[in-house]
Each structure stands twice: as C-alpha cells, then as structure tokens.
Write a structure and sequence with these properties.
Oligomer: single chain
Radius of gyration: 23 Å
Number of helices: 1
Number of domains: 2
CATH topology of the largest domain: SH3 type barrels
CATH architecture of the largest domain: Roll
Number of strands: 5
Shape: rod-shaped
Helix content: 40-55%
Strand content: 25-35%
Length: 92
Amino acid sequence: MQPQAQGSLLTSLLPLVVLFAIFYFLIIRPQQKQAKEHKAMIEALTKGDKIITSGGLMAEVVKAEEDFVKAKLNDDTIVKIAKEFISRKIES
C-alpha cells in the first residue's frame, strides 16, 4: 500500500510544480530582469543625461549624488529628485 500512496502524492503535486514553473518563467523572471536593468540605468546616470520622472517631468541631470539626482527643468529651475522616482532615460 506504500508505493501507491507515494505515486498518488507525486501525481497530485506535479501540476502545482508545473504551474509554478510557468509562473516563474513568464512573470517573476522578466520582472527581475527589468528591475536589474533599471537599477543599472539609474546608477549610470551622468551629467547631461535627459530623464523622465515617474511624475512625467522631463529634466536634464546636473549632478548625480548617492540617493538623489540634481536635475535642471529649465534654465532657472534646478530640483533634487530621489533616484527611485526616475522612470527612464531619454536616448538622443
């Protein structure tokens, strides 16, 4: 009676394992890859790069600091933006 119980357990867990594998490769792994690329982009910001914040503001980086970025919105306005709120870099 023991081998039958182990076979039953294996067949009941197999669909869950397959479902988790599909979930991992279609959702978790691409998100991790995207987050890694975004972090690398944030760390590589230098003076003169054009960025878009998560609020939709377009700015030019004046100085990249440890946790913040000083960015120029226009000729007169320089703001300090937390790095978490930088959405993307504009490629010219």
